[in-house]
Write a structure and sequence with these properties.
CATH class: Alpha Beta
Strand content: 15-25%
Radius of gyration: 19 Å
Structural class: alpha/beta
Largest sheet: 8 strands, mixed
Shape: globular
CATH architecture: 3-Layer(aba) Sandwich
Number of strands: 16
Order of helices and strands: HEHEHEEHEEEEEHEEEHEEHHEHE
Distance between the termini: 43 Å
Number of helices: 9
Strand order of the largest sheet: 5-10-2-1-13-15-16-14
Helix content: 40-55%
Low-confidence stretches: none
Number of domains: 1
C-alpha cells in the first residue's frame, strides 16, 4: 500500500507541470547513448507517447553521427572534422542522407509506432521544412595573413523553418520525427547539426521547452556538481570563465539562442538516465540543467 501511495504522490506532483504544458509543443533533440541502448530506446518511445496522450505535442529531432561513421567505415571512407563538424562532400552527403533519413529516422518512427504512438518521419527537405545555406567558417589567420575560408562541403546552417507540415501533422495527432537534413535554394541537401535544427524549430514554433538529450549530466560547477538552473547571462559568463568548455559550449549556446528567440525554457538532460525527459519535465528537482532568460 505504501508503494502505491508513493506512486499516487508522484502523479499529483506532476499535475501542475502537465497543466502548464497542456496543448504546448516540446522539441526534443534525440541523440547519444539513448539512441543505442535498447532499454533506453524503448523508454524514450514510451516517454514521447505518454506526452502525446496527456495533451503535449512532442517534436523529435534526431542525430545519427555514430551510425554514419559505421557506414562510412564499411565503405573505407575516412571522415575529416573541422570544429567538430564533418567535412561533407557530395558522396559523403549521399551517405549521410541515406543513413539519417532512410535508416535512423525510420527506426525511430517504427519504435514509437510499435509501442502505440503515431509517428511520421520527415527530413528537412519535406515541405521545405528546414531551409539552409552552405556554412562558412573562417580559419584563424597567422600573424599578418588574411583570414582563410574553410570549405566544409555540404555542411549547412538553418536560414528558415517552414512549420506548415508540422502544423498539419499536429492537427492529425501525429508525432513528427525529423532528420537534420536541410534543403538549399539550389535544391541540394545539406548536413546540419541536429542541436541547431532542434533549436531553430523550437524557436519558430515558440515551443514551451527545448530538450537536448546528451551523454552528460548537464552543466557542472567547479566541484563537479550539477547546476540545475542557469540564466542566459550566467551561461555566457561561465563560457567566458572557462567553466563551460568543449562540446558543452555549442549546446549551451543553442539553448541560449532558443530562449532568446522565445522558447520558454531549454534543458540539457542526461539521456543515459531512464525516463530522463519525464523526470526533467514533471518533477520539482529535475535531472538536468535548465536554461532560462
Amino acid at each position: 500500500m505504501k508503494e502505491s501511495i508513493e506512486k499516487a504522490k508522484t502523479l499529483i506532483e506532476s499535475l501542475p507541470y502537465i497543466k502548464d504544458l497542456y496543448g504546448r509543443t516540446i522539441v526534443i533533440k534525440y541523440g547519444g547513448h539513448a539512441m543505442v541502448d535498447e532499454e533506453l530506446k524503448k523508454n524514450f518511445a514510451l516517454d514521447i507517447i505518454l506526452m502525446k496522450y496527456i495533451g503535449i505535442n512532442p517534436v523529435v529531432v534526431h542525430g545519427g553521427g555514430p551510425q554514419i561513421n559505421q557506414f562510412l567505415k564499411k565503405m573505407n571512407v575516412q571522415s575529416d572534422y573541422v570544429h567538430g563538424m564533418r567535412v561533407t562532400d557530395g558522396e559523403t552527403m549521399d551517405v549521410v542522407e541515406m543513413v539519417l533519413v532512410g535508416r535512423v529516422n525510420k527506426e525511430i518512427v517504427s519504435l514509437i509506432n510499435y509501442h502505440g504512438g503515431k509517428a511520421v518521419g520527415l527530413s528537412g527537405r519535406d515541405g521545405d521544412l528546414v531551409q539552409a545555406r552552405k556554412m562558412k567558417i573562417m580559419k584563424s589567420p597567422a600573424e599578418n595573413a588574411p583570414p582563410e575560408l574553410i570549405d566544409l562541403g555540404r555542411v549547412g546552417e538553418v536560414t528558415r523553418i517552414n512549420p506548415d507540415v508540422l502544423v498539419t501533422l499536429d492537427r492529425r495527432d501525429f508525432i513528427p520525427v525529423i532528420a537534420p537534413v536541410g534543403v538549399g535554394e539550389d535544391g541540394h541537401a545539406y548536413n546540419i547539426n541536429a542541436d541547431l535544427v532542434a533549436g531553430a524549430i523550437a524557436a519558430e514554433v515558440k515551443a514551451a521547452k527545448l530538450i537536448l538529450l546528451t551523454d552528460v549530466q548537464g552543466v557542472l560547477d567547479r566541484e563537479g556538481k550539477l547546476i540545475p538552473t542557469l540564466t542566459c547571462g550566467e551561461a555566457e559568463g561561465h563560457i567566458a570563465s572557462g567553466l563551460i568548455a568543449g562540446g558543452m559550449i555549442p549546446k549551451v549556446n543553442c539553448c541560449r539562442t532558443a530562449v532568446n528567440a522565445g522558447v520558454a525554457k531549454a534543458h540539457i538532460v542526461d539521456g543515459r538516465v531512464e525516463h530522463a525527459i519525464l523526470l526533467e519535465m514533471f518533477t520539482k528537482q529535475g535531472v538536468g540543467t535548465e536554461i532560462v532568460l
